[in-house]
From TrEMBL:
<dbReference type="Pfam" id="PF13180">
    <property type="entry name" value="PDZ_2"/>
</dbReference>
<keyword id="KW-0378">Hydrolase</keyword>
<feature type="domain" description="PDZ">
    <location>
        <begin position="277"/>
        <end position="368"/>
    </location>
</feature>
<feature type="binding site">
    <location>
        <begin position="231"/>
        <end position="233"/>
    </location>
    <ligand>
        <name>substrate</name>
    </ligand>
</feature>
<keyword id="KW-0720">Serine protease</keyword>
<feature type="signal peptide">
    <location>
        <begin position="1"/>
        <end position="33"/>
    </location>
</feature>
<dbReference type="InterPro" id="IPR011782">
    <property type="entry name" value="Pept_S1C_Do"/>
</dbReference>
<dbReference type="InterPro" id="IPR009003">
    <property type="entry name" value="Peptidase_S1_PA"/>
</dbReference>
<keyword id="KW-0574">Periplasm</keyword>
<keyword id="KW-0346">Stress response</keyword>
<dbReference type="InterPro" id="IPR036034">
    <property type="entry name" value="PDZ_sf"/>
</dbReference>
<dbReference type="GO" id="GO:0006508">
    <property type="term" value="P:proteolysis"/>
</dbReference>
<keyword id="KW-0677">Repeat</keyword>
<dbReference type="GO" id="GO:0042597">
    <property type="term" value="C:periplasmic space"/>
</dbReference>
<feature type="active site" description="Charge relay system">
    <location>
        <position position="233"/>
    </location>
</feature>
<dbReference type="InterPro" id="IPR001940">
    <property type="entry name" value="Peptidase_S1C"/>
</dbReference>
<dbReference type="InterPro" id="IPR001478">
    <property type="entry name" value="PDZ"/>
</dbReference>
Amino acid sequence: MTATLALSRRLRPILAAAVLAAGWALAPAPASARGPEGIADVAEKVIDAVVNISTSQTVEAKGGSSENRGANPQVPPGSPFEEFFDDFFKNRRGGPGGRGGADNSPRRTNSLGSGFIVDDSGVVVTNNHVIADADEINVILNDGTKIKAELVGVDKKTDLAVLKFKPPRQLTVVKFGDSDKLRLGDWVVAIGNPFSLGGTVTAGIVSAKNRDISSGPYDSYIQTDAAINRGNSGGPLFNLEGEVIGVNTLIISPSGGSIGIGFAVPSKTVAGVVDQLRQFGELRRGWLGVRIQGVTDEIAESLNIKPARGALVAGVDDKGPAKPAGIEPGDVVVKFDGHDIKEPKDLSRMVADTAVGKEVEIIVIRKGQEQTLKVKLGRLEDNEKVQQAAIKKDEPAEKPQTQKALGLDLAALSKDLRTRYKIKDSVKGVVVTGVDQASDAAEKRLSAGDVIVEVAQEAVTSGVDIKKRVDQLKKDGKKSVLLLVSNADGELRFVALSLQ
């Protein structure tokens, strides 16, 4: 090792001379290798508009059992991290704030998140989950000034909230940019309050757009590798012009720390939600009154749609705007208000973002032909009712006569079968009484108690009807058959089964 180092020192003048003679320059790596130079300018420009959100609430303590204590990270007594872990892990979970003790009396807990100012009157945007269930909300400015805030409104579906506080002085505000203009690889800057450390700046790139992670009905996240951790929630994601192009909301991490996969609600969504919350204190979303599902390759083949695209209408609400407009189950919506529909999420987002009462043009494919319909949107009501699954009895009162087809045992609906599977009287068709677990039907999650309403868009009333339709489709060279299937409550869906 020593010999190698000594040789290197003797060679340095020679190597340096050779480099200079060749016209090369020994210079530090260009700034672009570490990121764009504009990050510091962005941070300096906007950091005073980024705030910490402090909330407190009264919770019922769970007691100080050894199981609860053992779930928290263990740190040496007197460690500088002891207070941090006691506050962050124990208080947030409602456990005892000090060591030992099993005090079960209600206690106050605190949590911290992030937000940003969008109006100099003191309007702040953050995440709903940052302030949910809080008894008291405070905004902490970048200089440490703490001010009590009131809630203007929340939208749980996009996890956004708007707050208002009385400004103590002139405020720095930020404006929204156009998230639709983002490209993969664009640099972005996140500013927030990770782990209650205070204003922190991180940078990264746009890793993906329109990401659906099944966290809500309108998922269309920006994915970034800028470091986002607990406490960053509600904080802004900036482009290099200092415009907010997203609100940092979620991370994927087994440890709770950043692993380079963070998600932000795009500014196009945020701006519309914020405007409505400020104006109405609630969201007023458009409503079409249909239940939709994806168009798989098998369904597209059955409906003669090439390529597979759009949103398949599985059901139409009797009281919704779609019914008087002429939309029917089996229609595939391929265009809404001039915009192409590639998948169901596109339609859900577009309808929700359209003004209540607006008349829009919808193009559907019905039995292989395009049709143009006009519909006046209603308003989506947020009832969020949870439907209970029907309890099925193990044995019927009487064994029904069945017909086998497509890996299914099929029987005509009878009073006994309606009672057995709790099928509503309004549901018509052929009931499934058994499923071959090796069949395509089992893979597509058909189960006993489901009711087949249509086969290849023709109504059926018996297992014999289904067998005849299937045999004819096989003779016609079809590769799959499209079934309209109802559950016991009458909710419809389309299922394509292979005929091979």
